[in-house]
Predict the 3D structure of the following.
Amino acid sequence: MTEASTFPRVIAVCVSKHKGTIKTPVDTAELTVEHGISGDAHAGPWHRQLSLLALESIQKMRDLGLEVEPGSFAENVTTEGLDLVSLPVGTRLGLGDDVVVEITQIGKECHTRCAIYYRAGDCIMPKEGVFARILEGGRIQPGDRILVLNDTEH
């Protein structure tokens, strides 16, 4: 975590109009229950309504010489200060003041190489991306605190 941060937090909120493409950071986003981020390609009535990736994972790719930023791996929420992949499926997270999400999947299988793979040279979402569904909606933005709501080990 950065020196200014003493708690897990949202670093970036990103959206895209098409699946398999890099997402663009936005100032704020509205999350809808059992849907996802309004206007995002991955929103809908399924178990991967929201994707999260740790800044620490992105840094691993930067350390390999890749020029990547939040959104480069098509994640909706870039986090800092929370070991996402260690959280079990079913863990609930509070994002900001109102949003509650439940982790539904850790990692994913990529059947084809997408634009992200070709631009970045690798994709860490299959190994370190976390997916969630929206239980309580609301707005989120960079700087919002992240709370683990039902896991006493983190």
